[in-house]
Amino acid sequence: MRERLRELKDEAWRYIAEADDTGELDKIRVRYLGKKGELTGLLRNMGSLPPAERPEIGKMVNELRGQMEGFLQERFGKLEARELERRLQRETIDIPLPGRKPAIGHKHPLNQVLDEIKTLFIGMGFDVVEGPEVELDYYNFEALNLPPDHPTRDMQDTFFITDDILLRSQTSPVQVRVMEKQNPPVRIIAPGKVYRVDFDATHSPMFHQVEGLLVDDHTTFGDLKGILGAFIEGIFGKGRGIRFRPSFFPFTEPSAEIDVECIMCNGQGCRVCSHSGWLEILGAGMVDPRVLQKVGYDIERYQGFAFGMGVERIAMLKYGIDDIRLLFENDMRFLEQF
Ligand code: PHE
Questions:
Q1: What residues are in contact with ligand 1 under a 6 Å CB criterion?
Q2: Both 31 and 151 in a single domain?
């Protein structure tokens, strides 16, 4: 038995001395001192020894156990220190290295333009209101002087949900909703999404419009020109030529389309303006008295003007974007430029 203990000690000491890391050392500890360990096994087998030898052998085993624990601890301390040292070397912190900036987002170019538009009109005393995107035929068409089956409805290819419910094709229905609830003076803009059956480089089935409406007494076409002139100057800068072209909308009379001097070529003529030197950016006109009458306004006393613009179009012109789809693909390489 003494012989066996000596062998066991030599063997264990060799292993402990050779162990290269704390993990290996722990395996050795378990092998000798664990519940099923070799030394533990010896203690457990004391019963098979002649009773006379038991106290002495027991004492030897316990002594060896104590020594082994001490030696293990000593080696563990050394290996642990070495491992810490290595880890610290591996993980040195490069203090002058610039930190990683967290990616913080910013406003989508469309929202940036929309905010600019709102700010300009709020500055001129307009309120911002919203209306539903799923709209009644009545508000989207009929109340705006587009009767059922009338050819003017063909101006907009519409998504119908039922015969009298549709995805609004313009923000103009908000005009009617506001006027039904409020007496003049009315001075509002109504930004929001609109939907049309259309899809190519300059048309998207969903896009954004901003509607404008002003109704008061003594409201003239001159006021409309003044307001839109100030707006265009705010968005595209001072000194840019503006022109009003006669046009048609069912709910305004007279109607106009408003062009701004091409911001790519300054009116010289280029691909973007189809060599005309002008870019169309707004539809507008004096509100047709029939629209005012339908909401119960006194048309002897009140006149109004209305205008509507596409936010995508303004963003595309302002930033020189040639494909509307870029605005909705959310490609970071595109968005980061704004
Ligand atoms: N709603 C019209 C359109 O989408 C634009 C417009 C608004 C024209 C207001 C005149 C007055 O084409």
A1: 170, 172, 211, 249, 252, 283-285, 306-308
A2: no
User: What's the whole-number average pLDDT of the chain?
Assistant: 92
Q: 144-183 pLDDT, tens per residue?
A: 999 998 888 888 889 999 999 999 999 999 999 999 999 9
Cα 120 to middle of ligand 1, angstroms: 19
Q: Concatenate the DSSP letters of all residues of 124-183 into one string.
A: TTPEE----SEEEHHHHTGGGT--TT-GGGGGS---BSSSSEEE-SSSTHHHHHHHHH-P
CA-nearest residue for atom 3, ligand 1, is 170
Helix or strand holding residue 89 (H, E): helix 54-90
β-partners of residue 280 are 259
Q: Note whether 51 and 123 are same-domain residues.
A: no
In this structure, is residue 95 part of a structural domain?
no
127-128 vs 186-195, strand pairing mode: parallel
Confidence (pTM): 0.71
Average pLDDT over residues 100-107: 88
Sequence-distant (6+) residues with CB within 8 A of 260 are 232, 236, 240, 241, 242, 278, 279, 281, 317
Instruction: Write the DSSP assignment of 40-79 as a string of letters.
Output: HHHHHGGGGS-TTTHHHHHHHHHHHHHHHHHHHHHHHHHH
* Whether 216 and 244 share a structural domain: yes
Kindly report the protein residue whose alpha carbon is nearest to atom 5 of ligand 1: 308
